[in-house]
## 1
Amino acid sequence: MAAAVLGGLSVALWAHLLATGVGSVLAVLVDPWRIPTKRESVALLVVAVLTVVAFVIWYLAVNVLGADRAGVLIGVMPVAGLVVSVAMGAQELTVVALAGVAVVGIGCAVGLLRPSPRTPRTSPSHRSCAGSPAGTGAGSG
């Protein structure tokens, strides 16, 4: 509901601002404050930008595919995590990781194969007035 009112970009922005505030408070309470290293700063920036892009793509996918089919795309998150960690040099690209990517890709493809039953939405007042002459249905008075 919030996404429909604010839009995908606004929801992503507010989620990031909230996460930044809460994360900052927790970081100060749990670990003494320190300036991030250059590598950590780049990683934080990359993750922030990719997360905003992912939020926007998610809301577009839900709008186009429907929530049931877009939910299958959650499987892409571990693949994105692998890409970022390999790009940042935090993890090596191994055969096991590539096999995991293949399994995730196959799972997403299988999950998206079934057509989604989309039915038009009608409000309750329209259904109760079906077939009645104008002005005699529910809500007229």
## 2
Amino acid sequence: MVEVIARKQMPSGSCHCGSAKVSVPRLPEMVTECHCTICRRYAALWAYYRKEDVTFSGPLAVYVRGRGHIAFQRCADCGCVIGWLPRIEYPERGVNARMLDDFDVNAAALVVEEDASE
């Protein structure tokens, strides 16, 4: 008898054009709506994961702002922001949960960050 073990596929997603991709270990249970000057323009819902648990791939462009602590990653073709990487010693990276396939915004707790910097 052969036993078949199903491998659970990691949740993933992509930008609008499909060129930039992201994969995470699980769909987020909580997301943050940040109201800083850049995040409110991106309209992202940030999910946070350990740096080593997230993969970004594809043609990515980078934008670094302000104090330079965060490098926003966006598709170089369509411009969708898929996440950010820390440029300082920090254990997490942010993923724009809106880019994840099967993400249900109504199933995640929402934290609104009103007192964000810049």
## 3
Amino acid sequence: MKKNLWIILIAAIVIASYLASLSMFSQSSLGQLNVEGIRFSFKDGKTVVNFTTDQPGFCQVLIGTESGKYQRVAVESMPEGPHREHYNVIDGLEPNTSYFYRINFSTSDGRISQSKENRFVTSEDIISNIENKQVEKPNGINIANIKNGGKILGVSSNYGNVSNDQQWGANMAIDGNPATEWSSAGDGDDAWINIGFDNEYKVKAFGFWTRTMGSSAEINRFRVLDADGVELGVFSLKGAEQIQYFSLDKPATTNSLRFEVLDSTGGNTGAVEIEVYPEK
């Protein structure tokens, strides 16, 4: 039984990877997919897409702000086999925003089809409950701190093009010193920082303290990804006065976390301090 489940799991992953690449092919080479009862719902920063297909199979929903250009993918919970009822979820879409989408679908016998392009608009209150993820400072060791083996794996930029260990460099966000800051070189909403740990941990919570320059450089909202690029959640900050702590919906086993800005006041965005806490 376990062997069969593993075979199905591997097949589903292969099919999902293939489906994600279908938008690059000519539409004439694909069959036409007909879906029934497609519904969009929005809660806690997540967009959920539900629909039914004529035949059982696997699917992904490609999403983008421009027609024919799909930068995001709504994935479905990993099923035990091909199915007709589909439940796809994606985090981090902007509220009250129009998006284009197209559904890619594959049956277990290899037949590939794709829906027509359509549009939907996200709800204004899609992120209204994200703040509920905030928690008190967790107990335990901050594994992102340089003294505890934390290290910078990558960063969008450092102000003045300095190295990570210089003033305004990325190391300033994980040095445990609130008197220092990492500042990007004007990256605004495109700023990101990738922090590695000395080992693989089951991460349960983290802290984030945005820098600010008053009218600019303040981060309002960001998302977090694990070492495999899986999105762990979207989080909103309440000001820049202090570090704010958040819990993950469920602990993530990973050896790094990547923080990507989604919304800010622009300019030299960055962080005063970032902390990460694993389960004991």
